[in-house]
Write a structure and sequence with these properties.
Blueprint: H1 3-51, H2 64-78, H3 80-119
Length: 123
């Protein structure tokens, strides 16, 4: 491989790395927004469950374990698709991080190779 080809490869790897970092930022923000919305909804569900009364006018879910179980059940029912998307985003985020690490390794290798070519052995 000649020096020009290696420079082009290093430049391409650098651009891919930058593009991947931007993609990670966008995905992280989307994930964070969805998580925030889900957390707000869970707070609303928790309030609903805590204030629900049975036919005797007593708390429908009288102990903490029952309340937590009901909140979890309702969250799963209302946000099944959102939770699925969040899990998929988390997986994709991990894959992108691995891709970015791989790109950075390749870029460092290309830069080291180019450094050796341009500096060369002393004459």
């Amino acid at each position: 491989m000649n020096v020009n080809t290696m420079y082009e490869l290093a430049e391409h790897l650098s651009e891919l790395s930058y593009s991947t970092e931007l993609d990670l930022i966008i995905r992280r923000r989307t994930h964070d927004d969805a998580k925030l919305e889900l957390d707000r909804s869970v707070a609303e569900i928790t309030q609903e469950v805590a204030s629900e009364l049975n036919e005797d006018g007593k708390a429908a879910f009288s102990n903490e374990t029952a309340r937590k179980a009901e909140v979890t059940k309702r969250r799963e029912e209302r946000h099944r698709e959102t939770l699925k998307v969040l899990r998929k985003h988390a997986h994709n985020h991990e894959v992108l991080i691995l891709d970015l690490k791989r790109l950075r390794d390749r870029l460092r290798n290309a830069q080291a190779y180019l450094g050796g070519l341009t500096n060369g052995p002393p004459s």
